[in-house]
Amino acid sequence: MTKKQKNILMWVGIIILIIITTPWFGTLYERIIGRELSPGFWGPSNPEYIDGFFMSSFLFLTLLFSLFKKGYRQLLIILGIFVLLDVVLGGWWQGLLIDLGLALVAWVLAQAILLISKAVK
């Protein structure tokens, strides 16, 4: 598999996983925080989707970037942009902590997967 094919596969995987899991992570965010979210003037009909989008983005971007051994510099730039978007959209500190915690969990999980795959080979 060429480098370009790996890159395309990674981005397609990230986008599909984020889209599929956004509602689930949004519901999980409401359960963790324990408050109803207000949609605001321009918000979607399901405001938890915004927080679910950020949670799933942090998880899957970190996981797949780490598994495909892409540069961590690119990952930090992308996650930094997401943090800025979350703050601009009025993200609470709990949401940022949850997002960063998910990124840490994804990184540890990716390292474990890489270690197991290396041991199997």
Q: Would you mind describing this structure in some detail?
A:
79% of the residues lie in helices and 0% in strands. The protein is globular and about 45 Å long. It is mostly helical. The mean pLDDT is 81.
How are the elements arranged and paired?
Blueprint: H1 3-33, H2 48-67, H3 72-88, H4 93-120
Helix pairs in contact: 1-2, 2-3, 2-4
The number of strands is 0
Mean pLDDT over the full residue set: 81
Count of individual helical segments: 4
User: Helicity range of the residues?
Assistant: over 70%
The biggest beta sheet, please? none
Alpha-beta classification:
mainly alpha
Beta strand %: under 5%
The 3D shape can be described as globular
Report, as a whole number of angstroms, the end-to-end distance. 18 Å
Provide a short characterization of the protein structure.
It contains four helices and no strands. It is mostly helical.
Keywords:
single chain; 121 residues; mainly alpha; 4 helices
